[in-house]
Write a structure and sequence with these properties.
This protein is of the alpha+beta class and 262 residues long. Helices cover 41% and strands 12% of the residues. The protein contains 10 helices and 7 strands. The relative contact order is 0.14.
C-alpha cells in the first residue's frame, strides 16, 4: 500500500535518532518498526509517498499516531538565534517523535545506562528474540518486546550487569500490578516523572526519556552526555529546554542527532 503525508519523515534519521532501539533497515532499503504486537516495513518512494506493509485500517489506527503524523513540526532554522541550534534544526528535519510503548521505553532506557547505542540495540533485540511473542509479517516471523512476566528471572544471558536488578524490579512491579503504566497517563509531566523515579534504576535522564518517548510529553527534554556538552559549549551552561515549551522534545532530538552526526 502507498500512503502520502505532508509531514517531513526521514526513516533513516528516525531509526538513528536514539529514541528507539528496534528500528532498523531491512532488505531492499525498507525500514522495520515494531510497536507492541504490530510490525511495519516502510520505504520511501517519493518526497511525500511511502510504501507500507500494513492494511489501511492498521496504518490509520497504529502507525499514523506512532509516527506522530497528525502533528506539524513547523520549525524554521531562521526562527532561532543560536547558530548551533539553527544548524541542528536544519539537520534534524524529518525526525519524528515516536509514540512508543511506555513499558518497552522504560526497560530499554534502564538498559541504556552506560551503554552505547549498538550495545543497547543488540541487548534489546536479543531479549525480544528470546522472550517476545511471535509477530507474523509478510517478511517472516518477528518478535515483540517481552512482556513484564517474561523478564522476572533468568536474565544472565543478556549481560545486563547491575541493570539486571533494575529490569527485574520494574518487571515485578508491573506484572504484580504495583505499577500501572497506563494509569500514569493522567498525571502531569512533573508528577509522571516523579512516579517513574520511584522505580529503582530510574533517575532524571531515564525518567525524562520515558516521559518524552513513552508518554509523548513534548515539553520534556532528556539531558545525556551529548546534550550536556552542547548546553555547556553553546548555551553558556544554561539548560535552554524549559523555555522551549512543547517544542523542547523535538529540538532535543534535533540537537542530539546533529551532535552525533558531525
Amino acid at each position: 500500500m502507498i500512503i502520502t503525508t505532508d509531514e517531513d519523515m526521514d526513516l533513516k534519521k528516525i531509526a538513528e535518532s536514539g529514541q528507539t532501539f528496534r528500528a532498523k533497515m531491512a532488505e531492499g532499503g525498507a525500514y522495520r518498526f515494531i510497536y507492541k504486537s504490530f510490525a511495519l516495513f516502510i520505504s520511501k518512494k517519493s518526497p511525500c509517498a511511502f510504501e507500507v506493509s500494513c492494511p489501511p485500517k492498521e496504518w490509520e489506527k497504529i502507525w499514523i499516531p506512532y509516527f506522530d503524523l497528525e502533528s506539524r513540526y513547523e520549525l524554521n532554522p531562521k526562527d532561532f538565534k543560536n547558530p548551533y541550534l539553527q544548524k541542528a534544526v536544519e539537520a534534524g528535519k524529518g525526525i519524528r517523535i515516536l509514540r512508543q510503548d511506555p513499558w518497552e521505553c522504560l526497560i530499554s532506557f534502564i538498559i541504556s545506562q552506560r551503554k552505547n547505542i549498538p550495545a543497547i540495540r543488540s541487548c534489546v533485540e536479543k531479549m525480544s528474540e528470546e522472550r517476545g511473542e511471535e509477530i507474523q509479517t509478510p517478511r517472516g516471523t518477528l518478535r515483540a518486546f517481552p512482556n513484564p512476566s517474561s523478564l522476572l528471572g533468568g536474565l544472565s544471558s543478556f549481560k545486563l550487569g547491575y541493570r539486571e536488578e533494575y529490569v527485574q524490579g520494574a518487571a515485578k512491579k508491573v506484572s504484580e500490578g504495583q505499577l500501572d503504566l497506563d494509569a500514569l497517563k493522567c498525571l502531569s509531566d512533573g508528577d509522571l516523572k516523579s512516579e517513574l523515579k520511584k522505580i529503582k534504576g530510574v533517575g532524571e535522564k531515564v525518567a525524562n526519556c520515558v516521559v518524552l518517548f513513552g508518554y509523548h510529553r513534548m515539553s520534556c527534554a532528556p539531558v545525556d552526555v551529548w546534550i550536556e556538552k552542547i548546553i555547556n559549549e553553546w548555551f553558556g551552561g544554561v539548560n535552554p529546554f524549559p523555555k522551549m515549551g512543547q517544542k523542547a522534545g523535538i529540538l532535543q532530538q534535533y540537537l542530539y542527532f546533529y551532535a552525533r552526526s558531525i
